[in-house]
Amino acid sequence: RYTILLELGEIELDRLGNPAGARSYFQQYIDTRKTGALLQEARWGKIRALGRLGKRKLEITALKAFIADYPSSYQNKKARRRLKVILSPDTSSQKGRGTSSSSTSEKPEKTKK
Predict the structure, then answer these.
(1) What is the 3-state secondary structure (H, E, C) of 32-45?
(2) What's the pLDDT score for residue 99?
């Protein structure tokens, strides 16, 4: 029953490009399901939505909590990488790219040299 909230969040975020709508669905899941296997997925979806919305302070807080709460998660490496990108002063141009890594934008510059 509650999994529909996750599915709607993913659709809003990835297919419709509506991070605000996605965040709402993920937050509804988080608010109604304090435990369970899919709580981690809802929290990761919310982090992705926050990144796309440009809500840096909220994204940083959510990333730190996610890393602490799910140390063995497959998303933990992505969360750590994203947090490093956000907090790095020399990658300010990358901050608006959601959970993408910064290495993809550097490769074309290296090939032009």
Answers:
(1) HCCCCCCHHHHHHH
(2) 47
pTM of the shown model: 0.78
Sign of the alpha-carbon torsion through 22, 15, 11, 34: negative
Measured CA distances, 17 to 8, 13, 23 (Å):
12, 5, 11
d(CA 67, CA 10): 21
In this prediction, residue 108 has a pLDDT band, given cuts at 50, 70 and 90, of very low
How far apart, in whole angstroms, are the C-alpha atoms of residue 100 and residue 80?
12
Rounded CA separation 75/71 (Å): 9
Give ∠ CA 28-18-87 in degrees, rounded to 5. Answer: 85
Nearest to 6 by CA among 75, 22, 99: 22
Q: How confident is the model at residue 106 (pLDDT cuts 50, 70, 90)?
A: very low
